């Protein structure tokens, strides 16, 4: 019984080590052609399109910068 | 103890596999274009079948706005240069093929269409954006890769297609 617990613990420690060693390489970035789900309107942080446009307009005019409110590389264009 | 060894071996194997996962790399001009063989609405679409033609491969999806805008232009190009040896192939990358079919019902394509729900073709072509297009010369080698589609791109793309068809003769 003790043996199995030790074995489990060892295996667990090894698994943790493996996960640590591989780091984020096990998590591959979403590729351009895989962004079908991200492109859905419900994936946006905002609810109302008109309100978003208004907010972005105010933000752009105050900050002299615009954009950056959507999902990075929402599946279209060049990024 | 034997279990422990087996666990260790499995872990080591998965670790190696995780480290081997390579990101998709972009195509280089002058290299042979990766082959593909896909099912389409009008039968199989194979790159080998178009050997000797200038092939314009376009990666598109139903969820991609610029793709919708590129379809009428691609229909025009196929109609205009098809006789001179241009073949446009639209590779669909939708995870659900029925989404692609619904898109095609509203946006007709007058060129070859292939479905690739697994995304093996865009991976082998290493595309970076949607839509992406790759022009393949009559010799089967990649001429250039283009990412995105805007109305302003049309002229330049047509010029490149014309140049590729001119080089073919």
From TrEMBL, chain B:
An MF annotation (GO) of this entry: oxidoreductase activity
Stated name of the protein: Thiol:disulfide interchange protein
Cleaved signal peptide residues: 1-26
UniProt keyword Ubl conjugation, yes or no: no
Alphabetized SUPFAM superfamilies for the sequence: Thioredoxin-like (SSF52833)
UniProtKB keywords: Signal
Native species: Massilia violaceinigra
Presence of keyword Magnesium: no
Domain named Thioredoxin: residues: 27-166
InterPro entries per record: Redoxin (IPR013740), Thioredoxin-like_sf (IPR036249), Thioredoxin_domain (IPR013766), Thioredoxin_ResA/DsbE_sf (IPR050553)
């Amino acid at each position: 019984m003790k043996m199995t617990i030790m074995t489990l613990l060892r295996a667990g420690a090894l698994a943790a080590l493996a996960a640590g060693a591989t780091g984020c390489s096990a998590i591959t970035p979403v590729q351009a052609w895989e962004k079908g789900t991200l492109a859905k309107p419900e994936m946006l942080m905002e609810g109302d399109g008109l309100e978003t446009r208004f907010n972005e307009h105010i933000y752009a005019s105050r900050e002299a910068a615009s954009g950056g409110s959507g999902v990075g590389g929402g599946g279209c264009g060049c990024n | 103890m034997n279990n422990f060894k087996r666990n260790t071996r499995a872990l080591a194997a998965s670790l190696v596999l995780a480290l081997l996962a390579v990101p998709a790399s972009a195509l280089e001009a002058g290299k042979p274009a990766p082959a593909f063989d896909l099912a389409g609405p009008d039968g199989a679409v194979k790159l080998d079948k178009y050997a000797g033609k200038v092939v314009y491969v376009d990666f598109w999806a139903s969820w991609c706005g610029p793709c919708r805008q590129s379809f009428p232009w691609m229909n025009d190009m196929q109609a205009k240069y098809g006789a001179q040896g241009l073949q446009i192939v639209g590779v669909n990358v939708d995870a659900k093929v029925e989404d692609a079919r619904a898109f095609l019902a509203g946006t007709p394509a007058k060129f070859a269409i292939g479905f690739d729900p697994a995304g093996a073709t865009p991976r082998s072509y290493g595309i970076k954006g949607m839509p992406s297009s790759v022009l393949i010369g009559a010799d089967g080698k990649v001429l250039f890769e283009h990412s995105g589609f805007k109305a302003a791109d049309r002229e330049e793309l047509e010029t490149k297609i014309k140049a590729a068809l001119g080089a073919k003769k």
